[in-house]
Design goal:
Length: 364
C-alpha cells in the first residue's frame, strides 16, 4: 500500500536542545512541504525555544512549568496533560511525534487518550527512560543510532537517524582550504590553509576539561604542525584567551559560532563531547574525533554514543577522568601522526522519520 501524505503533525519536545532542535528541524521541513505543524513545549527553556520556533514561523503551545519539588512536578505534569488534551482536541493532528525526555510525556499521554497515533524519536544510542515507558503506547520509535537497549522497547523500532538543523545540512560543501579562507574572512583569522586544524568545543557554557586541560596538552605538541579553532563558551572567552597566550601554533578562539558547518569542514579532527546531535553532525561531515563523554549524562548515554562512533573507526574515546594533560597530549599526537578514517556517510534523517509515520498511517 502506498504511504499517505501528512496534512498535520504535532511534535512534543522540550528540556534540552538535544530534544528540541531535532523536533524543530522536522517541523521546519514539514512546514516547507505545506504541512500544518505545532510544537508542544515544556521544560525550563520554553521562552527561548518558543522564540526560536517563532523565528521559523512554527506555532508553539507552551505547557505549564514544573518545579523541582515532587508536588510541583506532579502539578506541572497534570497541567501539561490537561492543556495538551484541550489543544489536541481542537487541532486533531494526524499524529503526534515525541522527541524524548519526561517533558514530552504529558502531551504524549494526551495523544494516547485521544487515540491520536503516537510516534517517538530518541537522539541517543541508549533509548531514555521516558521513551522506554511511552514505547508501550507508540506505533514506532526511531533512534539516531542503533539502539543498545532494544529489549527495553515495547513497540516496533529502527534506526532512522538524527534530524539535523538545515543550517548544518544544506550549507555549501567546501574543501578544507576554502572553509579556512571563509573562516579567516568572517573572524579576521590567520589560519593556514594547508595546516591540519583541530576543532575543540565543549558545549555552549564551555567546560573545564576543554578550556584548561586541552590548551595545556596542546602546548606539549610544539614539535608538530597543527592549528586550533576553539569555541570557549560565552562566559569563558577571556579566561581561555589567557591560557592560549604565547601558544607556538595558530589559534582562533571564539566564544561561540553560528557557522558550525564551516568549522566542521575546516577541521581535520574534532575534540568534543558525544551528545547525540554532535555525533550526528560529525558523521554528516565525515569528521574523525577525539570524544570525551559528559560524565554526568543520564544513564551515561554519551558513552553509548561515543562507542557507536568509535565502532565506525572514526573516533577515539577518552573518559573525563582520564583527561590529564599528559594523556590528552599523547592521544592527540597519535591522532595527528596517524589520522583516523572518516565515517560512512549517513542517510537523510529528517525524511526517514517522516516516511515512517506516513507508512504507518497508510495502514490504519
Amino acid at each position: 500500500m502506498n504511504s499517505v501524505k501528512l496534512s498535520s503533525l504535532a511534535i512534543t519536545c522540550g528540556g534540552t536542545g538535544g530534544h528540541f532542535y531535532p523536533g524543530l528541524s522536522i517541523a521546519r521541513h514539514l512546514k516547507e512541504q505545506g504541512v500544518r505543524v505545532t510544537i508542544f513545549l515544556s521544560g525550563r527553556n520554553i521562552p527561548s525555544q518558543s522564540a526560536e520556533a517563532a523565528r521559523h514561523g512554527i506555532e508553539t503551545i507552551c505547557l505549564p512549568a514544573t518545579t523541582r519539588s515532587k508536588p510541583g512536578q506532579a502539578l506541572g505534569l497534570l497541567g501539561g496533560y490537561l492543556r495538551s488534551l484541550r489543544e489536541l482536541r481542537k487541532s486533531r493532528p494526524d499524529a503526534l511525534l515525541g522527541m524524548g525526555s519526561f517533558a514530552s510525556s504529558p502531551t504524549a499521554m494526551a495523544a494516547v487518550t485521544l487515540r491520536i497515533p503516537l510516534f517517538l524519536h530518541d537522539g541517543n544510542a541508549r533509548v531514555g527512560k521516558a521513551n522506554r515507558m511511552l514505547s508501550r503506547f507508540a506505533r514506532h520509535l526511531g533512534t539516531a543510532f542503533p539502539a543498545v537497549n532494544p529489549g527495553a522497547l515495547k513497540c516496533p523500532h529502527g534506526c532512522t537517524g538524527m534530524p539535523l538543523r538545515p543550517e548544518i545540512t544544506s550549507g555549501e560543501t567546501l574543501s578544507a582550504t576554502d572553509a579556512i579562507a571563509r573562516i579567516n574572512s568572517l573572524y579576521d583569522g590567520s589560519l593556514e590553509a594547508e595546516t591540519p586544524t583541530l576543532l575543540i568545543f565543549g558545549g555552549s557554557q564551555g567546560a573545564a576539561i576543554f578550556n584548561s586541560v586541552l590548551p595545556e596538552a596542546l602546548h606539549r605538541l610544539g614539535d608538530l604542525k597543527f592549528q586550533v579553532i576553539h569555541l570557549t563558551g560565552k562566559d569563558k572567552f577571556d579566561e581561555v584567551r589567557e591560557v592560549y597566550r604565547g601558544a607556538p601554533f595558530p589559534a582562533l578562539l571564539l566564544p561561540a559560532s553560528s557557522e558550525m558547518h564551516l568549522l566542521y569542514q575546516a577541521s581535520a579532527l574534532a575534540v568534543c563531547r558525544s551528545g547525540g546531535s554532535t555525533v550526528a553532525e560529525l558523521a554528516h561531515f565525515g569528521r574523525p574525533a577525539l570524544l570525551i563523554p559528559y560524565p554526568y549524562a543520564a544513564e551515561l548515554h554519551q558513552d553509548d554514543n561515543a562507542r557507536f562512533y568509535a565502532g565506525t573507526g572514526a573516533a577515539v574515546v577518552l573518559q573525563n577522568s582520564e583527561c590529564t594533560p599528559e594523556k590528552v597530549a599523547e592521544t592527540l599526537r597519535r591522532l595527528l601522526l596517524e589520522p583516523l578514517n572518516p565515517p560512512p556517510a549517513p542517510s537523510s534523517a529528517v525524511t526517514g522519520n517522516i516516511e515512517i509515520i506516513e507508512s504507518y498511517l497508510s495502514k490504519a
